[in-house]
Amino acid sequence: MIVFAIDPGNEQSAWCIMNDKYELLDFGKQPNREVMSILIGRLTDTETAVSLIDNVALERVASYGMPVGREVFETCEWIGRFAQEAEKKAKVSYVYRRDEKLYICYDSKAKDSNIRAALIERFAKHDFKNGRGTKKDPDYFYGVKADVWASIAIATTFLDMQKENAK
Q: 12 vs 1, 32, 88, 140, 162, CA distance in Å?
């Protein structure tokens, strides 16, 4: 199983491609139109053929009763656009931020820094400080920055949920 996970934004989205062995195959953060092109299969530099993707996991916006601005509604529109296109060739699933916190940190009050630390603890091989390693000795998260961490959390949560449901 290969999952294409998207952390959607109103203008740019972070994404990663991960297999069911939790191997990070490719990732990036690009303008939404470019992410859509990757999803469609028109634009990809990855060695993993987009046609092999059988699951798309999107982070879904949840309401907690707080007022939101235009950016949140535009992000919701992009979630719908990504889902509509992805359904043409893959199974689409949604992951809520709360699920990421619970599956990765076992705490619904976890912050981004807690999620990142838990991912490093789980996947890093030798660089347990930031999980990246160096150019000479790269670790699991080499090259990962900004919102790509969130897309990895989405993919990890999706795969964890799939394995739990299979039991």
A: 26, 5, 22, 24, 27
pLDDT in tens, 94-131: 999 999 999 999 999 999 999 999 999 999 999 999 99
User: How is residue 100 written in tokens?
Assistant: 């990421």
| Percentages (nearest 5) of helix, strand, coil residues in the chain | 40, 20, 35
* Domain ranges, residue 124: 2-162
Average pLDDT over the chain, rounded to an integer? 89
Strand order in the sheet with 12-19: 24-31, 12-19, 2-7, 55-60, 91-96
The pLDDT tens digits of the residues spanning 52-87 come to 788 999 998 776 666 777 787 888 888 989 999 999
Helix extents (H) in the chain: 32-40, 70-86, 97-100, 112-123, 148-166
Q: Residue 68 belongs to a domain with what CATH number?
A: 3.30.420.10
Separation of alpha carbons 62 and 60, rounded Å: 6
Number of domains in the chain: 1
Are 151 and 14 contacting, i.e. CB atoms less than 8 angstroms apart? yes
Residue 167 domain flag: no
CB atoms near residue 79 (< 10 Å): 18
Q: Judge whether 31 lies within some domain.
A: yes
